[in-house]
Amino acid sequence: MAVKTVLRMGHIDLWQRATEVEKPFDNALHLLVQDLIDTMIDYDGVGLAAPQIGVLKRVVVFGVEKCDRYPDVEPIPRTILINPVISTIDELMEEGWEACLSVPGMRGQVPRYKTIQYSGYDETGAKISRIVEGFHARVVQHEVDHLDGIIYPLKITNLHNFGFTQEGFPENQPTRSD
Ligand code: NI
Q: What is the value of pTM for the model shown?
């Protein structure tokens, strides 16, 4: 059990491109995966990418059974995804609310592809390939962005849709026409 500190926006590691993990996966990779899972659970997160704990490797973990922060979302199986690749199915995008353990206390509305195919490897080296949509697709796009040094506020198209949850946001958001 090793819960790591999640780096917050402003730390330089969150702006870097992470490097591919070489096969065969070694013990350092297995320790990294365990740290990511332990940390994600301790922080009550839906997903976590290795750069968020200061390791610039292309590894993400995600999954949710039921989460207070996203009470209405469908469950996502706990997944370890190494060297992930995302392919788009079509150009259809949708806006949705996101939060991030590296941007604590805030949420924002981000456009994402509605449906994607993603592939990669689990920690045993077995190939994973899935076509997913909705919240599952959104979480994977969010986590894989971390591997390219992209945090969700960079993708918010209207900054009126970005704020602190403790201010009652977005429920207190006035309706705007712009
Ligand atoms: Ni994040």
A: 0.93
